Each structure stands twice: as structure tokens, then as C-alpha cells.
UniProtKB/TrEMBL annotation, chains A, B:
One matching Pfam family: GntR
CDD domains: AAT_like (cd00609), WHTH_GntR (cd07377)
PANTHER family named in the record: HTH-TYPE TRANSCRIPTIONAL REGULATORY PROTEIN GABR, TRANSCRIPTIONAL REGULATORY PROTEIN
Protein known as: PLP-dependent aminotransferase family protein
Source organism, top-level taxon: Bacteria
Keywords per UniProt: Aminotransferase, DNA-binding, Pyridoxal phosphate, Transcription, Transcription regulation, Transferase
Keyword Cell membrane: no
Family named by the database record: In the C-terminal section; belongs to the class-I pyridoxal-phosphate-dependent aminotransferase family.
Keyword presence, Cell membrane: no
InterPro entries (UniProt xref): Aminotransferase_I/II_large (IPR004839), HTH_trans_reg/aminotransferase (IPR051446), PyrdxlP-dep_Trfase (IPR015424), PyrdxlP-dep_Trfase_major (IPR015421), Tscrpt_reg_HTH_GntR (IPR000524), WH-like_DNA-bd_sf (IPR036388), WH_DNA-bd_sf (IPR036390)
Ranges where the HTH gntR-type domain occurs: 6-74
GO molecular function: DNA binding; DNA-binding transcription factor activity; pyridoxal phosphate binding; transaminase activity
């Protein structure tokens, strides 16, 4: 009996916690009245009083003399990992990043989104660092210009021109990272409650980022040829999204590339419904040959191109970029000054420019593409042997988006693998509709260690048993 | 007559632009009806039609068949520099940062917030860079752990312990910069419309940052002994601010230090009104001896300590930190992963740690304090000679907050000086109440060039004439 009462109290407390996490209740808001909430929850008023008192003891709410209970100002208001439906808490968009970033050296990370350190052009980086150690005092000590290192923006402008995108260095803004570039654009274009369209599946951190902006997210079904155009049109009409965020070159997680026709239709629909588009080009350098790019077709009128150097040069040297309309760049500069007092560190931008200008970089990229093509083939074969089959064979990059054997739950497999020091990327972290529990994203460059396949096989069996 | 009509149209267009900038009108909102707005503006409906058509031609608004005019989604929604009252646009919190950051090498910057490059420990930085060029591949290529380089967090924890603040490395989070640290905290604690208290005057970028968060800002009058406690109590009671942002060690722009008594009272008022406090310690290393610190008194229960290495080590190597409650750090990590995919670059954190551990760093700080003490004395004397008198003589740092000669408008002087390639910092950019037009902040380390005083004298005369 006492236990039952305890359970009822816990249920009421959990109900309030959920409202706090979802911001249905925010700092300073009055909590539901004792009697009213008791009725709503089907418990006795004394149970609600007990629950409120315990939450007050935890500092989440405060009693105000004679006027009931209020949400405390210091109640963590934006615990991102807690926001959203219960199912979503089970498989959180932060799960893979937190596990991979904080993994120890022994842990294998086929679920992570980067190449092993020894696949990167470290010799060129070391040369760049020694060159920088001889640079002018100002380069080492001063804040840089608000747009970021001119030499690097010029280099990017030349590269874009080669891809048919004519944009002066003044319309390029360097940022602290590719993610920060998208974040800055979201801060500029979005207000809480605005709707944003993403691909389903999409890079899990798009979902995390959009939570931070309290945006409402709609997912457009993704096909081997890009977003499903019929659904895109329906969703755009129904939800009037302000923004569409996508990877057009090599899509994360599937590695698919939209056809020229699809790209063209996406742009027309965006124009018809007055949407902006963020084209995240972060995997572009892995393409065997450039694919039709939204930014190039559109000429940066409503498309914003962002990217970084984390995948092919270094994730430690943080530097990203935004290419966009001139008036938007001006506003984004103010926003970046206000929120970071500048973008990419001049030291970081200097290292990137120096390494990209290093004669060895192009050779590095070509070797990397060949090495990854082999790895995709080999790992696809070894995965097939476990009944894990790629949804498609990508033209480039290091991802394989794979269907698991019938009845295998990816989340269960990932949890079991983590116990054996292997970080996997279960499908639903990528899925707005939470319909990818039978899929998993594999990073073929992080599967060299045979331990990975031993653990994978074991986890799949475990997941099937429990599923 | 036609000109008059043109003027009236322009007036209507400007009125709409202001509503867009201030977000009184936002994406998708319907514009006021032709007839209604004509009445409100005292013009003919045809004038409003003309104005709306021109704004539509500019792409700011769109006509919808039969249902009037609507704000276009792509109308820049957050042009920060445009937000706020007209007066504020005249003297914008971005004015000093944009002018100083983008100034060419010839421009003198007594208005800027950093030391000349040749005052910084560049030799130590170069050594650090050569050491890093020999570091492990992972350091050069990998994303770091979510909290940032452990060695640097341990070093900070030891330093804090020395100042009477006991906090484990796990409660320290490295960020991309000091500004980014405050921004992250604001994202965690604030929602649009929340009230934040700052000092009046305060660092101008606090005002810019809080605009980006669409916070409503109240300024507490600042005295030579810290915030005016009576006003602090009144404002806290009247506006129930969620957060107070301050520099306690050496206040920017005045260089004043709160007394222990004031610090203690501020904490009690914050507790009484359930406010969080951000203590921006960025100038702490310039203190001759440590002053009473809010974070140490409070033990990081409601105080969040932030800082960076931009003022004493390098502004080019971007790295800041947050020390706060453990549960807050966890939420801030998620937020930083979502919005930057990590904080300080491992390369940057490595450089900072290596340079701070360099035997020469302590000597550099001591020499820097002596050099600045001399510079404060000398420049104060030379400013007095122009009738420019320091509000107080700071214990440390490089700022002098000075009253201008009677009838001199700081903004006018700053604009005139800019024409002569000298960037000044007019008082009102620091003032929420816009009551500092007779003040200016000087950076004594940036006034070595005699040209500065020639231009300053000329600008003051010009400002007086025009004032």
C-alpha cells in the first residue's frame, strides 16, 4: 500500500518533469493546482502535494506563500537530451556523438562520423604547423577579420568557381565549424516554433541542432535519387517550412546523390513555397566527380552552402564556412560577432589554408578515394555475410546504410555492442519518423579491427533474441 | 508635389522596414491593411499601395492573391544591427567590434579590447606550436572529448583551487571562446523575452549577445564599488531577471572592482530572487592580487564562471571555458555538441595548455602588469591634458573609462576620428540606458602612436563644435 502510494507520487513527479523537459512548463510558470492536477492524474490531492513537495526539495519548483507552486528559474530549462517523446529518449540523437566523442582509445567506432587519425594528411598538417610557428606576431595573437582569413576565402572561391558557382570571397564567411555554420544560419532564419524540413533519414545532429532552436521538424522520405519529390511538394504545402537542410553531394547516412532532375525540382518547390535551403557539402571532396549542386543551380539566391574540412583534413583544427547572399552574410557576421566574437580562429584558418595549399593535398584526396572505394567493397561483403545488406552502394565516402537481418532491432544491437566497447549507429537516431529501427550506419574506415565483426555478430544475435 | 509623394512613400516603406527589423512583423505575418495603415500614417491609400509594391519588388513582402500583403519568409528576420530603437542604431553595440576587427594595419585602435600583438607571449606560442607539430596523429586529426582537453581542465582546476574555488575538472567545459561560453549559458538558461540584468555601463558585446537571444535587458547603475545595491534590489524585485551577467574582477569598461561586501550582497539578492549569475573573469589575470570572487563565495551553485585566454595569451588561438554546477555542465555539453559538435579545438586547447605550462608565462604576466601600470599612469596624464579625465584609476588591466570635456559628444568624436583612421569606443555603446554619451573607453596599450592624440584632440574639438 505504501509502495503503491510511492508509485503514484513518482508518477505525478515524472509527469511534471516531462512538462519541464518539453518546456510545456517553463521558468516562473505556475504549476497546475493541487486539486485540478489530482483530478487529471486520477490521484488524491495529498499525492500531488507530496509530489510537489519532493520536486521543491529537488529545487525544480518553489512554493510561493499562499499562491501555489511555480517552476524555479534555475530548473534546467533546456535539457536537450530530455526533450521530445519517450521513444525518442530511448534512442537519442546525442547517443552516437556522445559515445563516439568520449570513447576511450580501446573502443572501436564503426558508428562514428570521421576517419581514423592515421588516414588523415598528418605530415601536411605538421608542415603547416611549423610554417605557422614562423608567422607574423599578429597571426599568432590577434583576433582575425570578421569574415575570416582572406587567403582561405579566396582559395574556396576559386574552388567553387571550378564547380560552376561564381561567388566572391566577400560572400564567404569562415566559421568555427560546419555545425556552427548551420547553427548560425538557423539563428538567422529561425524563430522558436518555425518548421524546418530535413531528409528522413538525415544526419542525427541536424535533429539535435533543431531541438536547440526549438524548431518543429518534418522529415521528407529519402530515396536513392534524393528526397521524394511528391512528398516534398505535399509537406512544403502543408507545413510551409522556412528552411530545408540537406546533404546533396553524398547524403549522410545513405551516401545517395540526388539526380539533376530532383535537384532542379527541389529548387522550384523551394521557390514556390519561399523556403531557404542549407546545402551541407561536408562530404563533397569524397565524390569521384562533382554531382549537380543546389548552390550552383540556384546561384546562392535562396541556397546557403556550408562545409568544413573535418572529414578530409582535420577535425581537430576547427574551421567551417558559409557561402550565401551578400546581405545575409552581413547579418551573419553581426550574429557571429555577437555570439562568438569572430568565427574560425586565424590560427585554424591559417593551418587549413596552408595544408590545402600543400602540394600533397590533392594526392592525399585521390589516394583517400581509392582507399575508401576498396573499404566500401570489402566491408559490404563482410556485412552481407552477416545478413546485413547495404541499401545502396555509394559513389564515395565512408558510410554504408544497411538493413539488418529480419527482426533485428538496431538500438538493442547498439546497446549490446557498447558493452563490448564497440560504438554503433542505430538507424532511428537518423530518423525523424523513427522508422529506421531495422537499419544501421557503418563507417567502413573504422572497421579494420576484426573485434568489430565478432562483436557485431554477437550483438545482432542478442538483438534478435531480445527483439 | 511628386517629390512630396515620393517622400511620403519612403516614410511608409521605412515604417514597415522598422517593424521588420524590430520583429514587430515577422515571416508570414500579414501586413496592416492598405486603408488602415493609410489612416494610421496620415497618407492616402495609394501611397501605401505604392510603398507595399516597392517593398514587394525588394522581396521583403509578397502579395497573396486577394488576401493582401505578407512578410516574405526570406526577409532577413534577425538583422541584429537594425533591431532596437533609432538612437540605438546611431550608436550600435557592433560599432566598435566591427570597426576594430576589420581595421587595416594602418588604423590605430585605442577603442579596441585587446593588446597589441607585440605585447603577447609570442615566443612561448611559437614553442607551443613546434611542440604540437610533433604531437600524436590523434591530437592533430581527431575531434576531442566533449569536455575538452583534460590536461587544460586540470590546470584550470588547480588555478581555481588557488583562488578558493574547489571544482573538479569534470565541472569545467572548454568552449570555442569566452563569448561562446556566455552564449552557451544564455542558450541554456534563456528563452526569448526573458529578462537579463547587466551593469550600466557594461561590455558592449553583452548587449549584442542578448539581442541575439531576444532577451529584454535591464541595466543596474555601476559604481566604483560595483553594482549599486539599492538599485540591484529594486530591479531584481521589479523585473525578476533570470540572469545577471557581470565582470567582477576588473570591470569592462570602467576597471572598477566590487568590494567583498557588495559581492556578498549581490549573491544574497540573487538567491532571494532565484537568479543565476554569469561571472565573466576574462580580465582576472591582470589583477595585482585576486579580488573577492562571486564564484568562490557561492561555490558555483548559482554562479557560472567563464573566461578565456584571449587577453593575456592569444586571441587568435580561440579557447574559453565554463565552470558550473555538474548537472548544468552535462546539459551544456549536449548543447555544445548540437550547436558546434564540440567546443575548443583540441589543437587550440593543446596550444593554450602548452603555452600556460611554459616556464615563461608567469614572468610574462608579471612584466605585462608592470608595463600596463606604467601605461595607465602615462596615458591618464596625457588624456587629462586634453580635458579627458578617468572616472577612476583601475587596479589593473588596459582600460581607462573617461569623462570627456563639457559638451563633447563621444559618438560625434568617434565618427570624426574614424575618418582619420583611429577607432574610438564611445560611451553609449556600453550603456543600456544610453546615458554615457559624455564618456569614452580608452585602451592604454593601443595609444603609443602620437597620431592617436593628434586625432583625438581634433575629434574632440569637432565633436564640441557639432555638439
Amino acid at each position: 500500500m505504501r509502495e503503491a502510494a510511492g508509485t503514484r507520487t513518482a508518477t505525478v513527479m515524472e509527469a511534471i518533469r516531462t512538462r519541464l523537459a518539453s518546456r510545456a512548463l517553463s521558468a516562473g510558470d505556475r504549476l497546475p493546482s493541487i486539486r485540478g492536477f489530482a483530478g487529471a492524474m486520477g490521484v488524491s490531492p495529498s499525492t500531488v502535494v507530496e509530489a510537489y513537495d519532493r520536486l521543491a526539495a529537488e529545487g525544480l519548483i518553489r512554493a510561493r506563500q499562499g499562491s501555489g507552486f511555480y517552476v524555479a528559474n534555475l530548473a534546467p530549462p533546456l535539457a536537450l537530451a530530455e526533450v521530445g517523446p519517450r521513444l525518442d529518449r530511448e534512442i537519442d540523437p546525442f547517443w552516437v556523438s556522445r559515445q563516439s566523442l568520449d570513447a576511450d582509445a580501446e573502443t572501436a567506432k564503426p558508428g562514428c562520423g570521421w576517419l581514423p587519425a592515421d588516414w588523415m594528411p598528418n605530415a601536411a598538417l605538421r608542415r603547416a604547423m611549423r610554417r605557422l610557428a614562423r608567422a607574423d606576431d599578429k597571426v599568432l595573437s590577434d583576433y582575425g577579420a570578421t569574415r575570416g582569413l582572406t587567403a582561405l576565402r579566396r582559395l574556396l572561391a576559386r574552388q567553387f568557381a571550378g564547380e560552376g558557382l561564381d561567388v566572391g570571397p566577400d560572400r564567404i564567411l569562415l566559421t568555427g565549424s560546419g555545425t556552427q555554420a548551420i547553427d548560425l544560419v538557423c539563428r538567422f532564419l529561425l524563430r522558436p516554433g518555425d518548421t524546418v524540413m530535413v531528409d528522413d533519414p538525415c544526419y542525427f545532429n541536424f535533429r539535435a541542432l533543431l531541438r536547440a532552436h526549438q524548431a518543429s521538424v518534418v522529415g521528407v522520405p529519402w530515396t536513392p535519387g534524393g528526397p521524394d519529390i511528391a512528398s516534398f511538394a505535399e509537406l512544403a504545402a502543408a507545413h510551409r517550412p522556412r528552411l530545408y537542410i540537406t546533404n546533396s553531394a553524398l547524403h549522410n547516412p545513405t551516401g545517395a546523390t540526388p539526380s539533376a532532375q530532383v535537384a532542379h525540382r527541389v529548387l522550384n518547390l523551394a521557390a514556390e513555397h519561399d523556403m531557404a535551403i542549407v546545402e551541407d557539402d561536408i562530404f563533397a571532396d569524397f565524390e569521384p566527380e562533382p554531382s549537380p549542386r543546389l548552390a550552383a543551380l540556384d546561384g546562392l539566391s535562396r541556397v546557403i552552402r556550408i562545409g568544413s574540412f573535418s572529414k578530409t583534413l582535420s577535425a581537430s583544427v576547427r574551421c567551417g564556412y558559409i557561402a550565401a547572399r551578400g546581405d545575409w552574410i552581413e547579418a551573419l557576421i553581426d550574429l557571429q560577432v555577437a555570439t562568438s566574437f569572430g568565427g574560425a580562429s586565424p590560427v585554424a584558418a591559417g593551418l587549413v589554408h596552408s595544408a590545402l595549399s600543400d602540394g600533397s593535398y590533392r594526392k592525399h584526396l585521390e589516394a583517400l578515394r581509392r582507399r575508401l572505394a576498396r573499404a566500401r567493397r570489402d566491408m559490404a561483403g563482410r556485412l552481407e555475410a552477416l545478413g546485413v545488406s547495404p541499401w545502396l552502394m555509394p559513389r564515395g565516402g565512408f558510410y554504408l546504410w544497411c538493413g539488418l537481418p529480419e527482426g533485428c532491432d538496431a538500438a538493442a544491437a547498439a546497446r549490446s555492442a557498447l558493452a563490448d566497447d564497440v560504438v554503433l549507429a542505430p538507424g532511428d537516431v537518423f530518423s525523424v519518423s523513427q522508422t529506421a529501427s531495422g537499419f544501421m550506419r557503418f563507417n567502413v574506415a573504422q572497421m579494420g579491427d576484426p573485434h568489430v565483426f565478432t562483436v557485431l555478430e554477437r550483438s545482432l544475435r542478442a538483438a534478435k533474441a531480445c527483439g
